[in-house]
Design goal:
By secondary structure, the chain is α/β, with parallel strands linked by helices. It has a domain of about 80 residues: Gyrase A, domain 2 (2-Layer Sandwich), CATH 3.30.1360.70. The strands form four sheets. A five-stranded parallel β-sheet has the order 7-6-5-11-12, sandwiched between helices. The chain has a four-stranded antiparallel β-sheet with strand order 1-2-4-3. A three-stranded antiparallel β-sheet has the order 8-9-10. The longest helix has 25 residues.
């Protein structure tokens, strides 16, 4: 990564050498932006050098500052010392040289291949319900993290495990069989995943009715009397008893479990129904992925992976990493790692989720040779992944140290939590439509986009709406729980995607007004405005911010950088004249600055999956 301050650091390095006959490396010279309450552009903290230079911090700072201004007179204008902090003020020539270098660069970030493959797993939905707001946060985090890693030179494989089997899937299948009357997505005009999800909710509603009716029977009363805890009320007892009823008494529960057993035994009719309904769901999922601009390189299905991992269990037993109880179940003792004993195989030889995840990780390594695997999964699964990673270290898997859980907090609505079993969720498709509708409504109220065709308007609304949705979610650090507010997300004056797009659109508007005019030389412009220096400082930081985001798997770093850059450009746009600048050289400089801001905004927002419109 290019160090834009290397020239200044070299001056400081030479100043220390000449003043103290002492050598320091450029890495030891850490320059930070000077705090706004002090004069200067960058600050060097000299406290780390006091022992070697044998002087007080104030004396060291003053000595280095005086020598540096003498040596680096081309770019260093002055210095001041606040205790042990050396504040340096740079000349306009330095900022101009930096902008010229940025303008000449073919890429805003070094994407030279690192020769390392990274696998990112995200989305991984169940096929019994549509994608919803919680999935959107997962999908956007996974996609953006992939984009960021690719932008710094990693080869990224984007994947998901589709949870296409299990009792929940059978609930949807059974409900369609009993209550669907042969309806299909095509015959009803309902998107495939919404169609199947409707029958999952139908099952839950019918089960509630069945359970409620059963609670009024003599058999339920006997169960309550024999099983209640002291003064436990019927309401509290039956709320806790729901799963037991499903497994032991429910007619619907029995039929759903029978269907699962039939699927596992390969029953042709059940398999055919399963394939048909999952096919409807996949069509629906793909429509949503296309709307979000998301795609995958590989797909894994739980129906294929649920039997994986038993070879690793055998390996662990053979080398005594695992142990077997008298009932035949297999466990691992992770107490030394601060965890507990974890079951890996049931006594009847069937897998648990951990078994599958062990096997899936191994298969992925064999398939794509990725030594780094990132799992984008909600923080409800923090413990599960902690255990998974520790087991892989015990097994000495070659990729164990590269496994990472990109844990994220849940997304709430202003009205509270979502409940998928009751159908109280915000479907991804509805949410996408809602934010686009909000954009259209706001644009019509402002009377904008006159003279633009209806098709062009629709495309602009789409880009702005998706920017609002994606940015609002990605600007929050993944680990934090968040509330998504559609109206707030489209605010043109807030910390939003449309606000950033507006900065880019302003630059495109300025360029259109040039009408092919050839820019003059910037040489004559020497009195830079503070807003111009602020923008150049931000542009110089961009590559470092992208690398930081890649290192921490944190798209919010890019989102917040983009917002700050856009905010600085809006201030610059209001404070100085561009096309009617005081001189042709000032105009040329400001056009070059604007163009580079546009390049970085477009690149940074692309890392968030956001497209930039030319008009809005």
């Amino acid at each position: 990564m290019v160090d834009r301050l290397a020239e200044i650091k070299e001056v400081l390095q030479r100043a220390i050498r000449e003043a103290y006959d002492h050598e320091v490396t450029l890495d030891q010279l850490v320059l930070q932006e000077t705090k706004k309450e002090f004069d200067g552009d960058y600050t060097l903290v000299v406290f780390p050098f006091t022992r070697a230079l044998r002087a007080k911090p104030e004396v060291i700072a003053d000595t280095i500052g005086a020598k540096a201004v003498e040596i680096g007179a081309d770019h260093l204008a002055s210095y001041n010392v606040i205790k042990g902090f050396l504040n340096l003020e740079l000349k306009p020539s330095f900022w101009k040289s930096q902008l010229t270098a940025l303008n000449a660069a073919t890429k805003v970030v070094d994407d030279s291949p690192k020769g390392e493959r990274v696998l990112v797993e995200f989305s991984s939905p169940n096929t019994n319900k549509p994608l919803h707001l919680g999935h959107i946060r997962n999908i956007l985090l996974g996609w953006s993290t992939s984009q960021i890693l690719e932008s710094v030179g990693y080869e990224v494989v984007k994947t998901q495990v589709i949870n296409d089997r299990g009792i929940a899937i059978c609930k949807s299948m059974l409900a369609w069989q009993k209550y669907g009357a042969g309806a299909t997505p095509e015959s009803t005009g309902v998107k495939g995943d919404h169609f199947v999800g409707k029958y999952y909710i139908e099952f839950e509603n019918r089960f509630k009715e069945e359970y409620s009716a059963w609670q009024a029977t003599d058999a339920a009363t006997e169960v309550y009397k024999s099983g209640k805890k002291e003064e436990q009320t019927k309401e509290a007892f039956f709320k806790a008893y729901k799963n037991t009823y499903f497994n032991e008494y429910s007619d619907l529960g029995r039929k759903a479990k029978d269907m699962l057993l039939a699927w596992e035994s390969g029953d042709s009719e059940v398999k055919a129904l399963w394939s048909q309904m999952n096919g409807w769901v996949y069509d629906g999922f793909n429509t949503t992925y296309d709307a979000l601009g998301v795609s995958f390189d590989t797909l894994y299905y739980e129906s294929d992976t649920y039997l994986l991992g038993k070879d690793l269990i055998d390996q662990g037993l053979a080398d005594e990493s695992f142990y077997q109880k008298e009932d035949g179940s297999v466990w691992i003792d992770l107490t030394e790692q601060g965890l507990d004993h974890k079951i890996l195989l049931r006594s009847d030889g069937t897998s648990v989720y951990m078994t599958q995840d062990l096997g899936t990780a191994q298969k992925r390594y064999e398939d794509v040779s990725a030594k780094r695997m990132i799992y984008v999964v909600a923080d409800e699964q923090d413990y599960h992944f902690q255990v998974l990673f520790e087991i892989m270290k015990v097994l000495e898997a070659p990729y164990a140290d590269g496994m990472y859980h990109l844990s994220y907090g849940m997304v709430d609505l202003p009205s509270g939590r979502m409940k998928s079993r009751e159908g109280k969720v915000v479907d991804a498709d509805d949410l996408i439509k809602e934010v686009i509708d909000e954009v259209e409504k706001a644009a019509k109220e402002r009377g904008e986009l006159e003279g633009v065709t209806q098709e062009e308007r629709a495309e602009i609304y789409r880009k702005i709406g998706l920017a609002a949705l994606k940015f609002f979610i990605l600007k929050v650090n993944p680990k934090k729980r968040m509330i998504f507010n559609p109206e707030e997300s489209v605010d043109m004056q807030g910390q939003t995607g449309p606000y950033i797009q507006n900065a880019y659109v302003r630059i495109q508007s300025v360029k259109r007004r040039l009408e092919g005019e050839v820019a003059a030389d910037t040489a004559g412009y020497t009195a830079l405005d503070p807003t111009e220096i602020d923008l150049i400082k931000s542009l110089m930081l961009y590559a470092e911010e992208v690398n930081k985001a890649a290192e921490n798997y944190d798209p919010s770093t890019i989102a917040n950088y983009s917002y700050e850059l856009a905010k600085k450009y809006h201030k610059f746009y209001h404070d100085v004249r561009i096309l009617k600048a005081e001189s042709e050289s000032a105009k040329a400089f400001r056009l070059m600055l604007s163009d580079n801001v546009a390049k970085v905004l477009e690149h940074s927002m692309n890392l968030l999956g956001v497209e930039m419109p030319d008009r809005m």
